[in-house]
Amino acid sequence: MASLSSRLFALSLLGWLAACGADEGDWRVNQRLVVERRPVSLSLAIQDDTVIRPEDMSRLQSFVDIYFHRGEAPVSLTVARGEEDESGEIAKQRAAKLAELLNAMGIEPDGIRVSTAKAALPFPEGSARLGYDVYAVRVPQCGDWSDNSSFSPLRNDPSPSFGCSVTRNIGLMVDNPRDLIRPHAMDGRDATRGATIIGKYRAGEDTVSKGTVSSTISSVGAK
After folding, report:
1. Phi, psi of 54 (to 5 degrees)
2. Confidence (pTM)
3. Using an 8 Å Cβ cutoff, are 77 and 112 in contact?
4. What distance in Å separates the CA atoms of residue 116 and residue 92, rounded to the nearest whole number?
5. What distance in Å separates the CA atoms of residue 124 and residue 78, rounded to the nearest whole number?
């Protein structure tokens, strides 16, 4: 008959093994990056002669630059209209002019959704609202040292902050959080070179560059 100490050891071993496979102890679950879409908007006053005020041009340029870097199509363009039918036609003309300006700045016509909306505070007649979505990432907050960091054979769980700094740094350094959901498409020279290397690999050929690499060995400390 097994002794009491043997039984206690067996129970401890089972608890330890269960803790090793528990999902709640997985740092990849506890310290994860949350990627979500968030709206970006810009409000502008439209003028019939210059489309927008000259002092607003830099704001519009920054808005377009962010769109090219991180924005998700389409770009929404809404112009406020008044109560009269004539005001509605003027709003459509202003929206068309602003759409043409966005086309000239590089945004394709099929990437813009143009509409008009009834004027209401804080969206007065003669103003336009632009918008698109970007991906943003929420990073974990590190620094939880409430748990004992020493080894616990009965639990074998990582500390609450285990893996947090690495995950947080990745979230803060990523160029576009969209890349955490799907890879960034390769184009240009990178795509051509990538296709060449993959083709050589499939054919069983050497993929190492034939270029020469020169190096020197430091003589510091040599006798």
Report:
1. -55, -35
2. 0.67
3. yes
4. 7
5. 12
Q: How many residues does this entry show for the chain? A: 223
- Looking at per-residue pLDDT, the higher value among 80 and 145 belongs to 80
- Say how many C-beta atoms besides its own lie within 10 A of residue 38's C-beta: 9
Which amino acid appears at position 40 of this protein? Answer: V
pLDDT of residue 108: 94
Q: pLDDT tens, 198-217?
A: 888 888 888 776 654 454 55
Rounded distance between C-alpha atoms, residue 34 and residue 36, angstroms: 7
pLDDT at 116 over 90: yes
Mean pLDDT (whole number) for 156-166: 82
DSSP 24-55: GG-HHHHS--EEEEEEEEEEEEEETTTEE-GG
Amino acid letter at 38? R
Contact 176, 70 (CB under 8 A): yes
The ranges assigned to domains in the chain are 34-137
CB-based contacts of 23, cutoff 8 Å, min separation 6? 29
Residues 205, 190: Cα–Cα separation, whole Å: 20
Residue type, 115: S
CATH topology of domain 34-137: 60s Ribosomal Protein L30; Chain: A; (3.30.1330)
pLDDT more than 90, % of the chain: 46
